[in-house]
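Two proteins were folded this term; both appear here.
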Amino acid sequence: MDKRKITKKEFAAAVALCLVLLIIVTVCILWQEDEEIEVHTEESYSWFDTYSVIRDYSGRSRAEFDTNFNKISARFDYYHKLFDIYNEYEDVVSLCEVNRLAKDGPVTVSPELIEFIEYAKDIYALTGGEVNIAMGAVLSIWHKYREEGVSVPSEALLSEAAEHCDITKIKIDKENHTVEFLDDKMSLDVGAIAKGYATECVADMLVADGISGYVLDIGGNIRAVGTKANGDSWRAGVKNPDMSGEPYIYYFDIADSSAVTSGNYERYYTVSGVNYHHIIDKDTLMPADHFSSVTVLTEDSALADSLSTALFNMTMEEGEALISTLDDVFVIWVTSDGSIITSENQKI
């Protein structure tokens, strides 16, 4: 597969194109207001414990946007509860409740959760196990140590937990809408896929309602629904992992598509001068160290979210092999020395 490094001259030219920058997280829309389009915006800190912003470039009225935002907010509220592994709710059977009860027998869940787990199993197969929602036993250890911030879990502790990450031991009964764990030490963690999956579900809702011209930015997971009212795309940028340098290191246009980045520089803790980030390699059970960030552009936000994690955990050769089997996927790898490598240029 073709790949190329971005020259300093190309980088300088790209920077000159961007007049207004809003730094959020790893990838974001560079908001440039259009004088002929009235843009409506709402923000939220309620979904997936992150900052989100919904923007409407459709040219419709504020009243219409408010109606649409209420529907968008209600759906994200639902998926936030559904995929929450830390809290239980009266009106939704969350993954927290599933993790607590499924080891003791079948738990009745919503059809949406059944569909999600089936999708996650497909992603597991597609990525060769690099994205595994059944890795909760390992990831919960890393979460605990990251919260404490003073030490690193032992190899023995992680290896023992890894014995309880077999995704085939999630038993689904579609007819009765139940989930059961066949390993009593298993738990689910959907952080590698939940935001993207929920975002795509909301985008599908908007499309079904005939709504276009929206950008859903859910914690840096970008999903553009259609184009702006004037037919233009949005300009977006990949954040520079070197926080002391230029704010963005790669730029692209996006319309009716998604962009998601996985990186090692925003969620980490430091022990004895070494940073330990949150993306854990299934083979080493340690934070992956192949790249500083990986950004995936493709239509489906759930796939983009999943692939960004999978590719972050793979070598370049492994990642290129995976991407070669997929259509309309564009990847931007940023290496530890700051080099930028892109996959074969495909139309997104």
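Next, the second protein.
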Amino acid sequence: METRPEVVRQACSQAHRRRDAEELERVRQLGSVVVHDLNNAIFALLGRVQLLKRQVTDPQISKSVADILETVRLLESLVGSLHSACQREEAPFSVLQARQAVETALVEALRATEAPHGAAGDDGHDGVARAIAAIPTGTTFEGSATELAHALRQLVHLHRRRTARPLHISASFDADGASPRVRLSISDDGGAWPHPCTPPSILNGSCHLETLPLAAAQRALRDMGGKAALEPIAGGLRSTIELPIALDATPSPLEEAATCTQRAARGCEASCEENCQSSRRPRHILVADDDPAVRAILVAALESVGDEIDTIADPSALLEHPELELFDVVILDAGGGGLEALRRLRARGSALPVLVASGEALDERAIADGHAATRVMMKPIALDHLDHALSALTARRA
């Protein structure tokens, strides 16, 4: 039989291990936020310096620019080391029945956090059940149920840290538009929230440790095209998750005919393939990236060589672009739902060339899935390498 001091010692040891694990997870979350922001900042800096190098003719200035580039490369290697230290295992990507995936993840998240939960207004949990039941049986949730549960746990944890009062949960299902979405809202009555309602970022100056769970939830959702938001409300705090529900993306015969007409209108028929490849005409490029600094440097770099650029700030909305098949090539951010948008693009039979730009190492064979019109490159990308990759992809398109 254990003595009382021994029981106390074991309890203290367990509490210390739990505290250490929580602190380690917070450090890993903060490191992931820092790595993401630094990587995009370095990409923008590297692009600006490379543009300057192209324009400089003075030998001494050229040497100074080369020294700056060397320093940027050193920063890049340090950020890579930080990324390796903060990386956690990613849950496998899967395609699940939407109704069951959302319901299971919500139950798992609440159980894992041992959070009491109450009713939101008159709907309460009946509203959650009705919203989930309204999701058509045939629709799919294209992502990871584990990552979804992780995002929900983080948001519940954010509320539990500030109040011991019951949480109020509500849900709605929006079937309008081309991208139906489930919205889950979690709120409390714990009083005013003193911090900015944005994920921590070293770039926008709002890096508060209290909002780290929000950043972790954003990171867990971004590859599925989902989003997490936080806002103060009367008497409490509300976090909202939006989850995209996938529908059949098979193009109609009219869309396929329009695509053929558009390709012919560009003057790149098979009969003049050699002429198209030998003459350097402006490339029509779509940049889909949620980071404004990355979009800005890509536009500046590509316009400097005569390309025509269009941009969208939501990679998950790639398929909603009305002139998508008119572009010669797409530069697609892997995050923010970009990978899922690429999968749906290929599922409907499109051969549009896509250059996937990622801040993390990706398995190109798995992403491309044997499709020759897909290329994966890690940020920051040297502008010369970017230009060569785009040239190869557009040549294949022609």
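The longest helix spans residues 4-55. Residues 94-244 form a domain with the Heat Shock Protein 90 fold (CATH 3.30.565.10). These notes refer to the second protein only.
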